[in-house]
Amino acid sequence: MAGVITVAVVDDDRMLRDGIRSWFEGVEEVDLVACAATVDELLAGPGKPPDVVLLDLMLRDDRPPADNIRRLRAAGSRVLMISVVADRDRIVAAVTDGADGFLTKDQELSVLVEAVGEIAAGRTAHSPELAFALAYDRGSMRPRLSPQEREVLVGYASGLTLKATARRAGITVNTAKYYLDRVKAKYQEAGRPTYTKIDLAARVREDGWR
């Protein structure tokens, strides 16, 4: 995404909100436009929806995370979940419900800024906790790939060109591209948008494809 990324924070911890505001003051590529204790408060505020919302996983107003994610996405924002605790089931559920990534609150500023940039650009952010959660999830988050799709995915994501991947798999370039398109579509259906070669490499790491 070109230009400055607009960001909002929804967290009922005032100290955390103030801390993030202080953090972002020196970051030229990010503009923190709003801080709120609830999604209701953020959506009732002035101005257009921010590009990315940092959303606490569990707020004291007891609204389900899925509802908060849905409303923010409907308003036009992408969502980065943040939490003190890396609860695997809740992480997987949040991503299934439409969150674009997950970070624990002990990350460095550089990690947070990088995650915001990835999400604003239409990709997903992967903390070690999210990668672990997705890798060991046995539900619908991990799509079923055919042996051919998996071979092409692993080869291409490892750094090979599409032509080299096709040659190693003993298929044409067009067939290799067809398999990659199917892999991307399956991840899309699983709620894990996958567009670039970087995204594909991340899926290989997360799901333990070898």
From TrEMBL:
Response regulatory domain residues are 6-120
UniProt keyword annotation of NAD present = no
Q: Which InterPro entries match?
A: CheY-like_superfamily, NreC/VraR/RcsB-like_REC, Sig_transdc_resp-reg_C-effctor, Sig_transdc_resp-reg_receiver, Tscrpt_reg_LuxR_C, WalR-like, WH-like_DNA-bd_sf
Q: Does the keyword DNA-binding apply?
A: yes
**PROSITE patterns this protein is in?**
RESPONSE_REGULATORY (PS50110)
Q: Which residues carry this modification: 4-aspartylphosphate?
A: D56
Organism domain of life: Bacteria
UniProt keywords (A-Z) are: DNA-binding, Phosphoprotein
Report the PANTHER family cross-referenced here.
TWO-COMPONENT RESPONSE REGULATOR (PTHR43214)
Task: Please report the name of this protein according to its UniProt entry.
Answer: Response regulatory domain-containing protein
Protein source organism: Streptomyces globisporus
